[in-house]
Here is the input.
Amino acid sequence: MLMIDSQIMIISQLLLAAILGGAIGLEREIKKREAGLRTYSLVSLGAAFFSIISLEAFQDWTSRTGQVVDPTRIIAQVVLGIGFIGAGLIIFRQQHVEGVTTAAGLWVAAAIGVAVGVKFIVPAVFVTFLTISILSILRIVEERFFPGEK
Here is the structure.
């Protein structure tokens, strides 16, 4: 059974994952994209929670039974599940494809959630800021050097 300190740490991780996902979602919301603040927050939060559950439950299982199991299997399924959601967002309309950046952003938000779930806090924060930079700064570069291509 998890002690109170462990539970507070888990709650902190979940809050951080939701905040980091929300930061990316806020950028998408400002740009009026398909998925925004709530979607990105939920994806990151869910990925973090699945990661925490898999690590904590399997660690407890191993300590009680002595059987060794692979907790990364659940994390791998998170990646596949987000890929499925992302595929549903991609649309071919007339002569161009839409939703690829949104799908990729959700995929990264899930990775950030997993990172927070496995306590890779500093890399998760760095990837969040890098993602926001890519979404906002590279948009300006695209508009400036490749106008009308979207």
